[in-house]
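OP here, attaching both records as promised.
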Amino acid sequence: MEEDILKKTFKRLKQKNADLNNVLDTRCQNCCQNLALEQNFRTTPGSPNPSDSSLKYLSSPFSWSVYSHPDYPGLLIVKGAFSPAGLTDLLSNVLLEYPAGLGMVQDTSGHHVRSNLSCLGTTYPEGKSYWSTDDDQGNSLIDKLRWISTGYHFDWTKREYREGFRSPFPEDMADIGHNIVKRLKICGDLKPDSAIVNFYHPGDTLSFHQDELEWDLSKPLVSISLGLPGMLCVGGTKKVTPTPPHSTHSW
């Protein structure tokens, strides 16, 4: 029987005093020796659109450091994509605005906000935020919030995206995804229309999974890490493929 490297790695990293000596970290020169710095991505992005909302978030592409891994073609790790002020503004939006209604679902499901709470039947009080709302035990709902989806929502029962099950997609999020991909020159005109915002509390983890149900698998996935440092593992095509963990940072 083949050894499940993914499961073994995940179990090891969840330990309280896990050995992090083999973690790839772009902030440490000795910790990213297996990564290749992609100098060819540092090109002029062209004249920006004055109405582009991502301009207040992203830094100049000339300050970006883009890394690839020889064993994982297609994986790009971007360091320094956001300006310090842009990170603060984006984090504020994610924590304050997105939970307050950007996930309004335009269907007959009765959900006011598409999140793990709405799927569990928790209602969102009109005019209040997750930060100020107490449940029956006197806890803020933000303590229970784990994810919010916006744009096209994934139907976990049927395991599919479908027309009619969607909400307005935040313009700033769409512009950020579009411009990151454009500046990296890894595909044509990307128009993001779906996102899941995960909220990780102390001790939370997200198990290994595959993103294979999107409508167009030729388009890249853009993952943005905000807040405290975390650990990201990217696997190969088989569970026996070694998966080097990457340390993710907002800054």
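Record two, same layout:
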Amino acid sequence: MYRKADDIVRAKIPFTACLSSLTSPVVIDDFFSTAINDKCSATKTTHFATFPDYLMIQLNKFTIGSDWVPQKLDVLVDVPQQLSLDDLKGKGSLPGEIELPEGGATQVATVNIDESVVSQLTGMGFPLEGCRRAAYYTDGKGVEAAMEWALQHSTDSDFAALFTVAKEVTKSSCDEGSIGMITSMGFTRQQAIAALQATNNNLERAVDWIFSHADEIGDMEVEQFKQPKVKDGPGKYELAAFISHMGTSTMCGHYVCHIKKEGRWVIYNDNKVALSVDPPLQLGYLYLYKRLV
């Protein structure tokens, strides 16, 4: 029997269920607690710290199949045209709650520098302080490892500066990849190490830690350090635009955009623009809301 595309039966998901999934408590196993300096189970809840002028919501309409291939979830979600999120705004620490202490147990940093490695590196033409850095961060792995480190960091702004170890920074056991990610944002290596050590080597938390401890690490030669300005306001929004995907798979298909202009929905399909009489609000995957004023 022939069936029209419009006759496809799709599961319908309440938008409130999606919000509930986002904000419901989640148990985290093997969470490192700085209160006990050990791993334990913890419960995490997600709320909004601020409400921006424009709010982008992405629905994860895909999953990973048993063969590890992404699969599109062809479902309907009853996304509202007006949205109120005021009840989901965080209220900070609640009565009876105590914030976890920053970082864990600290120890005094011990500087061990192989002077023979420093001597060989300076003989290659590297500046003395940069050679001391290389010997320190490669920790006795030999002149080859130190030379590779020096070559990789020779363009660092503090490479040839006087080498000192910040009091609160212990000898780094941090992942070099994470250090590289943070320094690529304009922060110094010492700031990256301090942040990673204070957050149990969690890259995302480390970046947040740097921003929230600007005063404490101000003497670590901040290269590029600006706290982003964040707007806040009421959590009431109106749908302004959405993007939907036409196709049966995440590997192929076509994207179209609907934008609300002067109270009417307009569809943008490549170079074709037209009024949309019945916009597929329930089939989008990316929604843009504008704050109601």
